[in-house]
Amino acid sequence: MTVDNQTFLKSGLLEKYLIGQTNTQETLEVEKRLDASQEIKAAYNKLENNLEFVAMANAQEAPVHILGDILNELDEKPVKTMPAKPKKSFFAFGIAASVAALIFAGTSLFFYNTNASLMEENQKIVDEVFDLRDDILGNNLKLEALSNQLAQLNDPETEKYVLKGDRRAKNLKTVAYINPKKKKAMIDVVSLPILPANKEYQMWVEIQDKMVNMGALTVTERRLQEVPFTKDALGLSITIEEKGKNVLKSSETPVAEIEFKIND
Fold it and tell me: Domain range spanning residue 66?
């Protein structure tokens, strides 16, 4: 063995090459020497065989004296059990695949959250649109009702009657609008004096020889209230009754009343 080959073998490049730890330049140098020198080739084969033998011995828990023989065969140099030649390409591929998976997962999560946020925002817009449509529909119905009421008030056939309270309800004022031709009736409660908690105002319509209860009378923010049209009504009256009591025939004297004649 030449001095140059001895120097090369002592450098450890052959062992590094065997376990795949050389860089590109070192790999080219080792392969060049393997092609050019039988001595280097023989040493490489010996290292390769010894490495396989050590792997098998470790797997079978070899006795101590066998490990000593192996150490003697390796030029009295300490030998450590080396892992199998790593697959650089698969290791690098594994890292790249892991990074790609993380990027994909992160991107998927981002788009999922973005999509969820957009769906929530779209739902809010849809709800607002439906609320707006409901508001528009409600306002249109109110405008239509108001338009009908104004038309009824301006109708030449509509008669106006004002009910004013006596000394027991001095500030009471209610206006009734009766249109016998269209069989429509409305009232406007202008003002009602405050009553005790157990009392309320009730409206009555006089038909021939009896009084028909039209229910409790309340102020509703000066809005016209539709009331049932009563054919052959002779007049209207307002009494003070027990609150919540279903009165079919009042024994109280009206605090306000008017008389009228409605013909067909």
Answer: 3-73
Q: For residue 228, is pLDDT > 60?
A: yes
| Count of domains for the chain | 3
What is the pLDDT at residue 86?
45
If asked whether residues 194 and 148 sit together in one domain, one would say: no
Pick the more confident residue, 172 or 108.
172
**What is the rounded distance in angstroms from the CA atom of residue 203 to the CA atom of residue 97?**
86
Torsion on CA atoms 232, 234, 236, 240, rounded to nearest 10: -110
φ, ψ for residue 84, nearest 5 deg: -60, 155
128 within 8 A of 151, measured Cβ to Cβ = no
- Identify whether 80 is part of a domain: no
pLDDT in tens, 1-32: 455 888 888 888 888 888 888 899 999 998 99
Separation CA 116–CA 5 (nearest Å): 69
Cβ neighbours of residue 257 under 8 Å, at least 6 residues apart? 163, 235, 236, 237, 238
Cα 244 from chain centre: 46
- Give backbone dihedrals phi and psi of 196, rounded to 5 degrees, phi first: -55, 160
Which pTM was predicted?
0.43
